[in-house]
Amino acid sequence: MKTFRGAWPLAGLVAGFAGLATSYVTAMAMSIRESPVVVVGELVIVYTPGDVAERAIGLLGHWDKPALLIGILVIMGVLFAFAGRLARTSWSRALIIFVLLAAVGVAAVALRPGTSVANYFPLAVGFVTWLVALSVITEPLRATPAGAPSASEGPESDDDATASSRRSFLIRAGLVAGLAIVAGGAGRLMGRGRRQLEETRRLLKLTGVSEPEVPTSVTVGVPGIAPWRTQSSDFYLVHTAIVTPTVEPREWSLRIHGMVDREVVVTYEDLLARQRTEAWITLNCVSNRVGGDLIGNAWWGGVRVADLLEEAGVHDDADAVLQTSQDGWNCGTPLAALTDDRDAMLAVAMNGRPLPIDHGFPVRTIVPGLYGYVSACKWVVDLEVTRFDRFQAYWTSKGWAELGPVKIASRIDVPTSGDDVPAGAVTFGGVAWNQHIGIRGVEISLDGGEWQAAEVAPGPTDDTWVQWAHTTRVTPGDHLVRVRAIGKDGEVQTGVERGVLPNGATGYHEVDFTAEPA
User: Fold this and answer.
1) Which domains are assigned to the chain?
2) Using the 8-state DSSP alphabet, how is residue 231 labeled?
3) What are phi and psi of 321, to 5 degrees?
4) Distance CA 297, CA 300 (A)
5) Parallel, antiparallel, or unpaired: how do β-strands 424-433 and 455-457 relate?
6) 3-class SS of residue 139
7) pLDDT one-digit tens code per residue, 421-447
């Protein structure tokens, strides 16, 4: 009996994805945040070199993680199909493929912080599903050896047997695929933790948190410039978690330990009972390229980290705090930045509301003047007071600098590159930032000419960005405008072009445009 072309690879593919579906539903049923595929994806992120990760973020933006998962699924699909093809002649060789895939999953789970025996159970369920499903689907294909009809059978009976085998195979493959779809849907229903947490967040009432009131003096009134206050929904998102941690406030706690006189453990209720601080603070990512949009300004509310560290009693020889997130990500923050007069805080609110889940709900760290990779720990659960020479954090292990002070920078928002504008008086505008130091001035240069001072709308503190604008006459033709900022400490933004590695990009933002005759 001859099987139809592609039957065995199809069987491997269906069995493989059935295993992924059962492992996923098992993980959701056990309230394990990550399915095995997600765990593998996050392991890839952890071990991706820093320059590769930076290029992926620059190329794909917030689609980098979906692209990674799709890539993993495609690779696994190819291997599943190959295993099915091997099973036609050698079941043991097919088994090797499945064992290797399972081993990758086991390694990924083992390398995650806080792994327990329960985390391996979804892998075991998926592995058993692979074997059972492949056996069930291919049973009709193995029932009658090819070309071996009995003596009493003729060509017609052989054709009938082939047709019957094919029908049986397709029915079994269809049933397994259908069950896999049902299992995946069930897993999604069971994984409704985020939806429940969204409801918890929506109903949460935070006392001591005020609505943001944008000062009237912070805008220059030029359409097209980024809003001074960034809406929470528009705030940039960069983190390593493929599946966002969902932490119920009642289950959250923060441990402060290490080089301290006494260990301090704070619950969410304890945190809300403490004196609150609120401030406008601009955050930007170290991966933000010159002229990029990985930056935003919001009204943050929380509790000062300095007060908590003072309660713990920090040792004199400590110089760093290792922050750890609920999902295992960590960063090393200079102790001085957490204990000086800046509003470094454990934030519970953003723009007058509880933190969005993707931005660290229920609690995250905000430290003005530092890039997020050394300070902004979302879903923070652990602060270890220590020394920089005793640890290596997530991003520093990938080649990024140990300290991450924000670099003075500026951006042109109006006009945008390639725009056509009427010749004559042209208004340029944008934003500039130099968190915790402040902006004293902004200048533009048209076609390489002299620097011209722009109007700068002062921010309420040195920890926010500022808007700027300048109008000058422009003749018809193609032009190039560049911008630079000057800090309150006298530092003039450099025009030397450097990439984001190892501690942030530098260079002037330039925009080309065409002035059309009036």
Assistant:
1) 7-191 (no CATH), 216-398 (3.90.420.10), 409-516 (2.60.40.650)
2) P
3) -130, 125
4) 9
5) unpaired
6) helix
7) 999 999 999 999 999 999 999 999 999
For 117-140, write each residue's pLDDT tens digit: 778 888 888 889 888 988 888 888
Q: How far is CA 358 from CA 5, 80, 127, 196, 237, in A?
A: 47, 34, 32, 14, 8
278-288 confidence digits (pLDDT tens): 999 999 999 99
pLDDT at 84 over 80: yes
Q: Is the dihedral of CA 458, 459, 462, 465 positive or negative?
A: negative
DSSP state of 506: B
β strands within 285-438, DSSP E:
295-304, 320-325, 330-334, 345-350, 353-354, 364-366, 380-386, 409-414, 419-422, 424-433
Distance between CA 269 and CA 263 in Å, rounded?
Answer: 18
Which residue from 468, 470, 479, 469 is spatially nearest to 421, judged by alpha carbons?
479
The residue written with tokens 């994984």 in the block is: 191
**Is 389:320 a contact under the CB 8 Å cutoff?**
no
Name the helix (H) or strand (E) containing 456: strand 455-457
Helix, strand, or coil here: 110? helix
C-alpha dihedral over 435, 441, 444, 449, to 10 degrees? -130
- pLDDT of res. 364: 97
* Distance separating alpha carbons of residues 91 and 102, to the nearest angstrom: 17
Task: Tell me the longest C-alpha to C-alpha distance in the chain.
Answer: 100
CA nearest 513: which of 485, 482, 484?
Answer: 482
Contacts of 132 (CB under 8 A, 6+ apart): none
Distance (Å) of CA 254 to CA 271, 345, 374: 9, 13, 18
